[in-house]
Specification:
The protein is 76% helix and 0% strand. The protein is an all-alpha fold. It has a single domain, classed as Growth Hormone, Chain: A. It starts with 20 loop residues before the first helix and ends in a 10-residue tail after the last helix.
Length: 428
């Protein structure tokens, strides 16, 4: 008598268990690099008011703090854009791992140097140089994970990678809370910590086989930006850039002003600076809790509804959550309840980019394409914080100014209508 065949279910291995230790290591170092990216980017939003009050001296009126704060935000966003575009090309030519090391060192060193600023323009300069590294790190890290992780888990890996931004935001809030009695300069000095990640990458991570093979097969032809605008690539490039522009404009023009909104709500309480710092930190953690859920939610949405469907949900949610969060609260408690909803949509939207952008371009120009799309729109999006500063002067409050930015998400829905669906496609 033939014995019964064993149940296939007993021999089915979970896709997660098929991942090698090295694949997990690649995700970890890219994730950790993006954590510190986020922490360094968030530090300024948390210390902007006390830093500019110190650097501007007798000129530190609320209007001037809003204006110069917006200028520095805009300078930072421009640096991020230029770094992302330039280092995307470098990553395709020099390698993903090597570029990761270079960019992490850049943003770690110049974040620390920002703590030595003696004027608002010195702070702006250091923030610009920091942003060069932050922009480049995303292009290299997202491409590295996309090319090393298996197709069956690549989307989930990209979602986990983007969750690092939420972890970094949370880390910045924890550091800010812990150092509330210290000078704002100390917060910037903490930014030297990512240099440890650069050392780890240098010692443990090698270039992806996909990139090595693509480079060998390309011959003397070198990847460049011009290839992104050939007839077969132009539509993908423009759509990817438009979506990133909308996400960045909304984040930097509105969501990242949440600490300032909280300070406005706390003003009538007459708290000392240490008390304000603690409550602002808790509010930022609340915002970030929703953001982390949004980062993790995009991947299953993209697998279920496709990339276009997931983007659409996040854009509609952002357009509704922004005015709701900034205009409705009359108290600190109400704001803290609404901030997670805002974070879920406006931050969760960003998880679509490490998933979608690498799918639009072949290996030979993947970092160039992803880096350009994710960052080119930042040049225009740099007007977001500057526009918010102008709107504050005209509308009277940060809440009214930031909520008016919500209209940008409607433009994102137009871009989605032109987007190419890549669900189910394998990386070229």
């Amino acid at each position: 008598m033939t014995p019964p065949l064993p149940s296939p279910a007993k021999h089915v291995m979970s896709p997660w268990r098929r991942l090698s230790g090295y694949q997990w290591l690649v995700l970890f170092v890219a994730w950790l690099g993006w954590v510190f990216d986020s922490m360094d980017a968030t530090i300024y939003a948390l210390v902007m008011t006390p830093a500019l009050r110190d650097l501007l001296g007798s000129r530190a009126t609320p209007e001037n703090i809003g204006w110069y704060g917006g200028v520095i935000f805009s300078v930072f966003v421009v640096g991020w854009a230029l770094g992302g575009i330039a280092f995307g090309v470098v990553a395709d030519r020099l390698g993903r791992a090597r570029t990761l090391v270079i960019t992490i060192l850049i943003y770690a060193i110049f974040t620390a140097l920002a703590g030595l600023s003696h004027s608002w323009w010195e702070l702006a300069l250091y923030r610009f140089l920091t942003a060069l590294g932050i922009g480049g790190e995303w292009a290299a890290g997202a491409t590295l994970v996309a090319e090393v992780w298996p197709e069956s888990l690549r989307v989930k890996g990209a979602g986990l990678l983007q969750s690092a931004w939420g972890a970094g935001y949370f880390l910045a809030a924890v550091v800010y809370f812990s150092l509330s009695s210290q000078s704002w300069r100390v917060m910037f000095f903490v930014g030297i910590l990512p240099a440890v990640v650069a050392l780890l990458v240098r010692l443990k991570v090698r270039e992806p086989e996909r990139w090595v093979e693509a480079r060998a097969g390309a011959g003397p032809r070198r990847p460049g930006l011009a290839e992104l605008f050939t007839p077969g690539r132009r539509r993908d490039t423009l759509v990817g850039t438009a979506l990133a522009f909308v996400a960045v404009f909304g984040l930097w023009g509105a969501t990242n002003w949440a600490p300032t909104l909280i300070r406005e709500l706390l003003a009538p309480r007459g708290l000392d600076e240490a008390g304000k710092v603690r409550l602002v930190s808790l509010a930022v953690m609340s915002l970030n809790g929703g953001a982390i859920l949004g980062y993790l939610a995009f991947a299953p949405l993209a697998q279920w509804l496709g990339r276009r469907g997931a983007f659409s949900i996040m854009l509609v949610g952002s357009a509704a959550a922004l005015p709701l969060t900034f205009l409705l609260p009359a108290s600190y408690a109400t704001a803290v309840m609404l901030l997670p909803v805002l974070g879920f949509f406006t931050n969760g939207l960003f998880s679509g980019f490490p998933i979608y952008l690498p799918e639009l371009f072949p290996t030979r120009i993947r970092a160039t394409g992803a880096g350009f799309c994710f960052n080119a729109g930042r040049v225009l999006a740099a007007a977001g914080p500057l526009l918010t500063g102008v709107l504050v002067a005209n509308l009277g409050t940060f809440a009214r100014a930031a909520s008016s930015i919500a209209v940008i998400y409607l433009f994102g829905l137009v871009a989605v209508a032109w987007a190419r669906e890549t669900k189910g496609e394998i990386l070229q």
